[in-house]
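[job 0412] stage=complex_fold ligand=glycyl-adenosine-5'-phosphate status=START
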Amino acid sequence: MSDISLEDIASLAKRRGFIYQGSEIYGGLAGTWDYGPLGTALKRNITNAWWKFFVDSRDDMYGIETAILMNPKVWVASGHVAGFTDPLIEDVKTKKRYRLDHLLEDAGVDIKGMGLEQMVAALKEKGMKSPDGNDLANPASFNLLFETQIGAVEGEGSTVYLRGETAQGMFVNFKNIVDTFYPDIPFGIAQAGKAFRNEISPRDFIFRTREFEIMEFEYFIDPSNWENEFEKWRQLMHDWCASLGLPAEKIHELEVPEEDRAHYSKRTIDFEFDFPFGKKELYGLAYRTDFDLTNHQTASGKSMEYRPKDGSAPFVPHVIEPTFGVERTLMAVLCSAYTVDELNGEQRIFLKLPKELAPIKACVSPLLKNKPELVQKAREVYDMLKKELGAVMWDDNGNIGKRYRRQDEIGTPACIVIDFQTLEDGTVTVRDRDTAEQKRVSIAELAAAI
Ligand code: GAP
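[job 0412] stage=complex_fold status=DONE, emitting structure tokens
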């Protein structure tokens, strides 16, 4: 995996219909990407697997779906209007804008723990210019929330924000869940959905975009137990990574220093992954304390206290928040699955995806497409599997070798070929993606076998 380039991943994603540039025919729109049929299926499989892992398999998790547009008071109370910023710096000549921390990192400066002032000092000390060789203006803090107008009248009262994180939808529904489901503490509220950030410099393919999906949950706890809960979730996050086939040695924990933590966090661990362009944040685990619930309680005037069922004193719960970017997961999954080996003296590329994530579970082909009896039998097998497995593909283009190569590149675990022997004994060949080995399986046992 170490010598895979970002170019390898991006080119396979485009070539095979996983990911396209957003608004491509108009020259694109920076920081946006469109997902083709296979990318959509892979993304959905990841989200479904996450839901199964963290929501459906537990009895202390409540899954919800909240609005992207929220009352703007939410974002004031949450601190995002004042503090959800990145350091922006501008090339005085071209007016191109950059993230100061990215420029410093690209110049080899370790920016961990640096505040804005220290970054400016490092910039001056190095006498740095913009990537185009021009002087840089003084940096400023740039708010990442996208603003838009609601209703027919433009003006101050109509400004709303596209949500910068899905978390706030869960905090503002805390009372609703408590009042309608009476959960015991600890319990969690989970959600997966779109988030929007006006990133200064979107980059590295789908790694840093302006529109992306987050899967996360707010786990409400008694504060006296926060360290314990934090450790439990830390381990479960590693278990989740393993379930995706991400190699443990590619995941690194980073204890985020206080100066670099989000405004709401008392402790954060970043889960970093060895992407082809370096070790970068994949997920985060934060101890958000009672920051959000208390701020919403103050700003809305509604009590956010939890009343324990044993009659003990009510309190505002604290929160542990594990957060997972869908696109970064997809990218880590693709990087981990991308495999190059040699088959019959030729190089082959294949995606060694876990079966649960593979966009297509099986491909069905007649050995020859000009033999009606083979095509008819193959269609019967295809229809049968499609009913049972859903994501099954029909492919009769080119020779069998080419079909296998195509399916290998999109990670299809099994290729089924209907040949003349099928007509005699009701068996088909099933080729395994990883080993390229073939075995004969009777049609009746096919669905179970793959
Ligand atoms: N509620 C906490 C929260 O939103 P975050 O670390 O700002 O935390 C959550 O974002 C996750 O979303 C990150 O761990 C990362 O996986 C993903 N993410 C953040 N910004 C992103 C971007 N611009 N493009 C793609 N994914 C992003």
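The two ends are 27 Å apart (CA to CA).
[job 0412] exit 0
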